[in-house]
Design brief:
11 strands; Serine Threonine Protein Phosphatase 5, Tetratricopeptide repeat; alpha/beta; 3 domains; six-stranded parallel sheet
Length: 598
């Protein structure tokens, strides 16, 4: 039989008559999750009709769903060459661009989709996601609201709107969005998780815990929810419970954050030998992970390994924290010669840290530097009188400097060991006139009794405050010690406990007049002893050279080392340590016995 040679006239052959059925079969298989079948059908369609925009588009979607984003983008771009009026394809092309990190391109694609179809809720939502990823939170909120206006049942838009509002610190509005999400989808683990974060930001810790627990009930492998639940439980002081959730998170995703959280929960339980492994593992995965360096530094310093501890501590910085302190245009001092140089010491962390580390000003001056200090406003009077300080100020760094240095980095720069801590006490001095004024008042109000100041609680925002602070009720036995006049130095909400204390503990309460550290320091200079939990007042008294008895929890801070009853930072300070975390009675009994011994 003679072969017929087809005649080509330069035009594309019409698509086969069965093409619509093939396309529908491909879409049905795709929607049913039978990706391999869908892929075979898309390939068959494109072999028959290479310009079929629908097959190109949804074959691209299939690649996107498989994580093959570059191939997805190429297929969708090809589809749009043949049909530039397909709003859904523009929106999905934006998703592929966003997945590739091309956020500007993504926003252009979403804008094209919305020009074609202004009420396209999915495109609005996706546009919001891209804007939010670029930090344009207010613009993202607008797009999410428009998406919801177009489709009030779009769960993702409610959820994303809540997340954007949360980033804007509008937590009450965010919670309302999550309630709307859950009304549409009661099984949204993400909505419960995000609600937990919003509650946590508002310090509604029990509500946060309940939300995280519900998220985990809905999705047991939700690693982020396990971590955040662990942290919320840890704030209640249940470090063993926190450990259990952190272990689950590490099993699901052993990333540096989860590893450091687990290590921290072990350290909070006093299991120091166990925690180090997790910090080392975190750093093996990310050598620049600041939280791992900081926690490892604290562990090494607590063990007295100052050489390695300060080296780790120098790597503690998150970029945002460092940038907030850094002085633009001035080099950070890392131990260079200081003769004839101007050095700015920049305060960091809490008041107690300031009091402890300002001792280095005199050493830096002795090395030849002119030392200025940028410190928190309430400390300036005390700092200005310190030996070695040329000038003290708060706020933005001013003046010309050769170097600047974070206050707590100085020990690393000068090579501090346990044996070389500067202990020339006092290195802080109260205002002479204020000291004299308090002397007259105290002499008039007490006889020859010992005058002892008392502090039983620190700031509630401190991570370990549940165990660092105590109730004044634990100290009621002190009221029975004879020949002591007690002076309450307690500030903040815990001061209210004084109203229910025995009369001897309430007898001298000048809290309304202790409006700053200057007044507190002047009063302390007229006392014989300060008994305190681990707070800034204890550091202040130590820096003033006054005797201090420090009451420490079993999981005490790094600076108090392990087991010791003395401190190399404050000669004359005496440390009383809990034997069991949370149990103060035995420790208070030791304090009473020592006071009675005289």
């Amino acid at each position: 039989m003679e072969h017929q040679i087809p005649h080509h006239d330069g035009r594309s052959a019409p698509p086969p008559a069965n093409l619509p059925a093939l396309i529908q079969a491909a879409l049905d298989a795709h929607q049913a999750g039978r990706f391999d079948t869908a892929e075979s059908l898309y390939r068959e369609i494109l072999a028959l009709d290479p310009a079929n925009s629908k097959a190109l588009h949804y074959f691209g979607v299939l690649h996107y769903q498989r994580g093959q984003h570059a191939a997805a983008a190429a297929l969708m771009s090809h589809a749009l060459k043949h049909d530039r009026h397909d709003a859904a394809c523009w929106s999905n092309r934006g998703l592929a661009a966003a997945a590739l990190g091309h956020l500007d391109e993504a926003t252009i694609c979403y804008d094209q989709a919305l020009q074609l179809q202004p009420d396209f809720a999915d495109a609005r939502n996706n546009f919001g996601v891209a804007l939010q990823a670029q930090g344009a939170l207010n613009e993202a909120v607008e797009q999410y609201r428009l998406a919801i206006a177009s489709n009030p049942a779009l769960v993702d838009a409610h959820l994303n709107l809540g997340a954007a509002l949360g980033k804007l610190n509008r937590f009450a509005e965010a919670l309302a969005c999550y309630r709307n999400t859950l009304a549409l989808d009661p099984n949204s683990a993400e909505a419960h998780f995000n609600s937990g974060n919003a509650h946590n930001a508002q310090r509604e810790h029990e509500a946060a815990i309940a939300s995280f627990e519900r998220a985990i009930a809905l999705r047991p492998d939700y690693a982020e929810a396990h971590v955040n639940l662990g942290s919320a439980i840890g704030k209640r002081g249940d470090y063993a419970g926190a450990e259990a959730h952190y272990r689950r998170a590490v099993a699901l995703n052993p990333n540096p954050t989860n590893l450091v959280c687990l290590g921290g929960s072990l350290g909070a339980q006093g299991r120091l030998d166990e925690e180090e492994t997790f910090y080392r593992d975190a750093l093996a995965r990310d050598p620049n992970y600041a939280d791992a360096h900081q926690n490892l530094a604290w562990l090494l310093l607590k063990r007295g390994d100052y050489a390695r501890g300060w080296a780790e501590f120098a790597l503690r910085w998150r970029k945002s924290d460092y940038d907030a302190l850094a002085v633009p245009g001035v080099a950070e001092w890392r131990g260079e010669p200081l003769e004839g140089r101007r050095l700015l010491v920049v305060g960091e962390q809490g008041f107690g840290d300031h009091f402890q580390f300002l001792r280095y000003a005199r050493m830096l001056q002795e090395r030849g530097a002119t030392v200025d200090v940028c410190a928190r406003e309430p400390l300036l009077g005390l700092v200005e009188r310190m030996p070695g300080v040329h000038r003290a100020f708060s706020g933005k760094a001013e003046g010309e400097y050769d170097f600047w240095v974070p206050m707590m980095s100085v020990p690393s720069c000068v090579g501090t060991e346990l044996s070389s801590i500067p202990t020339n006490l006092p290195y802080m001095f109260a205002d002479t006139a204020k000291v004299e004024a308090w002397r007259e008042r105290l002499n008039a109000s007490s006889g020859g009794e010992r005058k002892i100041g008392l502090v039983w609680a620190g700031s509630a925002t401190f991570g370990n405050d549940r165990y660092r602070s105590m109730s004044l009720a634990h100290l009621h036995p002190l009221a029975g010690v004879k020949n002591v006049s007690w002076y309450a130095l307690q500030k903040g909400p815990a001061h209210a406990q004084l109203a229910r204390a025995p009369q001897p503990l309430r007898e001298h309460d000048f809290i309304d007049e202790l409006h700053d550290f200057e007044e507190t320091g002047a009063l302390i200079m007229n006392l014989d002893l300060v008994i305190s939990v681990d707070t800034a007042v204890a550091h202040l008294a130590g820096a003033l050279g006054k005797p201090v008895w420090l009451l420490l929890p079993a999981n005490s801070d790094w600076r108090w080392l392990e087991s010791r009853s003395d401190s190399p930072w404050y000669p004359g300070m005496r440390l009383f340590r809990q034997k069991v975390l949370g149990e103060w009675a035995e420790l208070v009994g030791e304090v009473v016995s020592e006071l009675e011994r005289g």
